[in-house]
Design brief:
The complex is a heterodimer of chains A (about 325) and B (about 220).
Chain A lengths: L22 H20 L1 H8 L3 H5 L8 H19 L4 E3 L9 E6 L8 H9 L12 E6 L14 E3 L4 E6 L8 H5 L5 E3 L5 E3 L9 H5 L5 E3 L14 E3 L11 E3 L4 H4 L6 H5 L5 E5 L6 H8 L1 E4 L10 E5 L1
Parallel strand pairs in A: 1-9, 2-13
Antiparallel strand pairs in A: 2-11, 3-5, 6-7, 8-10, 12-13
Chain B lengths: L1 E2 L4 H18 L28 E3 L7 E7 L5 E5 L1 H4 L30 H4 L7 E3 L5 E3 L3 H6 L3 H8 L6 E3 L8 E3 L2 H4 L10 E3 L19
Parallel strand pairs in B: 2-8
Antiparallel strand pairs in B: 3-4, 5-6, 7-8
The chains are: A alpha+beta (about 325), B alpha+beta (about 220).
Protein name (chain B): Doubled CXXCH motif (Paired_CXXCH_1)
InterPro entries (chain B): Multihaem_cyt_sf, Paired_CXXCH_1
Pfam families (chain B): Paired_CXXCH_1
Chain lengths: ~325, ~220
C-alpha cells in the first residue's frame, strides 16, 4: 500500500492508489491484451488489402446506388487508376441496356470444331490476365453420344475436330433464374433489363458463393491482379464489363456489353472462323436469332435445373 | 441438355411474361432485382430503322491464271480462263484432276462426284452455270452453291450459317458476312482441320499449376 500524500515527502508526485489488485483483474487484463493481439492478427489481411485500395474505392457506393454525377467521378477515378497501374489510356463507359432489347446467344454444334479462337478473342477483348490465359469461355471436347459435361475435357490440343468428338463451348448462359445472383450476400451481381447478368467489381467481396452456385462453371475468380502489358490493354471498356478487374473479385462473361450495347457483335462471335455463333435480340421478330429458335433443333444446357438460360445450342 | 420439344419461343415468351408478373406482384421481395426487373412490361421491340445493311463479301471476278514467267519488260502476267478454253474442246465427262493437264495439275477435287462442267460453263470459261444451263457470273458464285446447298443457303440468309463481323443492330452500323468460298474451297469444300493454339490454364485440370492454386 502506498500513501501518496506522504507527510514526510511533500515534494513527491502523487500516484494513483492501487488496492486489492486481484487475480481476476489480472486475468481480465491478460485476455484483453491477448484479444487485442488476436484482433490485430485477424484483420491483418484487411490491412494488406487496404494497401491496394484507395480511399475513394473504399468509400464508393454500390453501382446501382450511384447518381450520374457520382458515376462520372468513379469512372474518372478508374480511368486514372488504369493509367497509374497499367500505363494505358482507357475509356470506361457506363453502357446501359437498350430499351426493348433482350440479348440471346446460340451456337451451332454441328459447325463448331473446337479451334478455340473464341476463347482467345474473349481473353484479349476483356483484358484478362496474360499469365493464366484466362477467358470467360471454355470449349469442352465431348465424346459423341453424350451431353454430360463431366465426360468432357478442356485440355485437348492438336488438330481438331477429332472424329469421335464434338465441341461444346460454355460461357455464361445469362440465366433468367440465375443461381449466382440469388446467392450473392451483398447483391454485387444482378440481372439487367437486356438479360445480361453483371457484376459490380467494386462491390464484390470475393466470397465466391456465385462461382460455386453456377452449374456452368461460368464465373472466374481473380486470384491475383490481372497482368496486361500496356500496349495490349483494350481501351474500349465499360464499368460493368471489361475494365481490368481488381484482385479478389469474381468476374464473368457479359455478352461483351461494352460492344453489344453499342450495337456491335460480341468479340467471340466475330473471331469464330466457322461461323458457329449467332447473337441477337429475341424481342425483334425479324432477328436472326428468332428465326433460328423457330426453325432449328435447339437445346439448353442442364435444362432440368430450371435456370432458364438465354444461351442456346443447336444442330443443323 | 435435353431436346426442346415444344415451340421454344412460346416458352421463352411465357417465362419473360411470368417474370414480369412476378416482379409486379411482389414488389420489393427481391431487392437485388429492383432495378433489373421493372414492374411494367418490357417495351415492344423498336421498329429498327435499318440505316445500314448486311454486306456479303463477293469474289472480285473470274479467277486468273498467274503465268510462271515474265514478259520481256519483266512484268508478271495473268491470263483469263477463256484464253485457253475458248480454243479447246471441253471434256464434259471429266471429274478428276488426274486427267487434267497444264494449269490444273495438282488440283484437289473432292466435291462429290461432280464433273468440272457441272459448275463451270463449257461455252464461256469465264463464267459458271447452273444445272439448268443458266449462266452465273463468278461474283455470284453463291447462287451456284445454293442450288444444291439450299439448307445452308437458307440458314445463311438468316445469319445461322457463316461468319460475320460488325453490327447486330443495323440502325447503328453495317455488318459484313463471308460468302461460301471464303470458308469452303469450292473444289474440296470440307472445312479443313485446325490446330488449337490458345488454351486457358485451367486450374481444375492443369497439373502444371502451382499446388497452392489448386482448390
Amino acid at each position: 500500500m502506498t500513501d501518496t500524500n506522504h507527510p514526510s515527502r511533500p515534494d513527491l508526485p502523487t500516484l494513483p492508489i492501487i488496492e486489492n489488485f486481484s487475480r481476476r483483474a489480472a486475468i481480465k487484463g491478460g485476455f484483453a491484451t491477448l484479444g487485442a493481439a488476436a484482433f490485430v492478427a485477424a484483420i491483418s489481411p484487411l490491412r494488406h488489402a487496404a494497401q491496394n485500395t484507395s480511399a475513394g474505392e473504399f468509400m464508393q457506393n454500390h453501382y446501382t446506388e450511384l447518381t450520374p454525377e457520382q458515376k462520372a467521378d468513379v469512372i474518372a477515378r478508374l480511368e486514372e487508376e488504369a493509367k497509374e497501374k497499367y500505363g494505358a489510356e482507357v475509356t470506361i463507359g457506363d453502357d446501359r441496356p437498350i430499351p426493348g432489347t433482350k440479348f440471346v446467344y446460340a451456337i451451332n454444334l454441328s459447325v463448331c470444331n473446337g479451334n478455340g479462337k473464341c476463347v482467345e478473342a474473349c481473353h484479349k477483348e476483356n483484358n484478362h490476365d496474360r499469365a493464366t490465359n484466362q477467358s470467360y469461355i471454355r470449349v469442352i471436347e465431348m465424346p459423341k453420344g453424350t451431353m454430360d459435361m463431366e465426360q468432357g475435357s478442356t485440355t485437348y490440343t492438336g488438330a481438331v475436330p477429332k472424329d469421335d468428338k464434338f465441341y461444346l463451348p460454355v460461357q455464361c448462359q445469362q440465366c433468367d433464374e440465375p443461381p449466382c445472383v440469388d446467392v450473392c450476400p451483398v447483391k454485387a451481381t444482378w440481372k439487367e433489363d437486356d438479360g445480361i447478368v453483371v457484376v459490380d467489381y467494386n462491390w464484390c467481396i470475393g466470397c465466391r458463393y456465385c462461382e460455386a452456385a453456377c452449374p456452368y462453371h461460368a464465373r472466374r475468380f481473380n486470384w491475383k491482379q490481372p497482368e496486361v502489358p500496356a500496349e495490349e490493354v483494350n481501351p474500349d471498356q465499360s464499368y460493368l464489363s471489361n475494365r481490368i478487374r481488381p484482385v479478389g473479385v469474381v468476374e464473368k462473361c457479359t455478352y461483351c456489353l461494352h460492344r453489344t450495347r453499342r450495337g456491335k457483335l460480341p468479340a467471340c462471335l466475330e473471331a469464330c472462323p466457322t461461323g458457329a455463333r449467332v447473337f441477337g435480340n429475341i424481342l425483334d421478330p425479324e432477328s436472326n436469332i428468332r428465326w433460328l429458335l423457330e426453325n432449328k433443333r435447339v437445346y439448353i444446357l442442364k435444362e432440368e435445373l430450371g435456370t432458364k438460360p438465354a444461351f442456346f445450342y443447336y444442330f443443323d | 441438355m435435353t431436346r426442346r420439344a415444344t415451340p421454344l419461343l412460346a416458352r421463352a415468351a411465357r417465362a419473360i411474361a411470368l417474370m414480369v408478373v412476378a416482379a409486379a406482384a411482389l414488389p420489393g421481395c427481391r431487392p437485388s432485382d429492383g432495378e433489373a426487373r421493372h414492374a411494367h412490361p418490357a417495351p415492344p421491340a423498336p421498329a429498327s430503322v435499318a440505316a445500314y445493311q448486311v454486306n456479303i463479301r463477293r469474289p472480285s471476278g473470274p479467277p486468273l491464271i498467274e503465268l510462271a514467267g515474265a514478259d520481256p519488260q519483266g512484268r508478271a502476267a495473268s491470263v483469263a480462263c477463256s484464253t485457253c478454253h475458248s480454243v479447246r474442246k471441253p471434256n464434259l465427262e471429266n471429274k478428276t484432276a488426274a486427267s487434267l493437264d497444264e494449269f490444273h495439275q495438282g488440283l484437289t477435287v473432292n466435291h462429290g462426284a461432280l464433273a468440272c462442267y457441272a459448275c463451270h460453263s463449257p461455252d464461256n470459261a469465264d463464267t459458271l452455270r447452273l444445272a439448268d444451263g443458266t449462266t452465273v457470273e463468278y461474283v455470284d458464285v453463291m447462287t451456284l452453291c445454293s442450288q444444291c446447298h439450299s439448307k445452308q443457303a437458307e440458314s445463311f440468309a438468316h445469319g445461322a450459317h457463316g461468319g460475320m463481323n460488325g453490327f447486330w443492330d443495323l440502325s447503328r452500323g453495317p455488318q459484313t458476312k463471308n460468302n461460301c468460298i471464303d470458308c469452303h474451297d469450292p473444289h474440296a469444300p470440307k472445312y479443313p482441320k485446325m490446330v488449337v493454339d490458345f488454351k486457358p490454364h485451367d486450374r481444375f485440370l492443369d497439373a502444371s499449376e502451382e499446388p497452392h492454386d489448386r482448390h
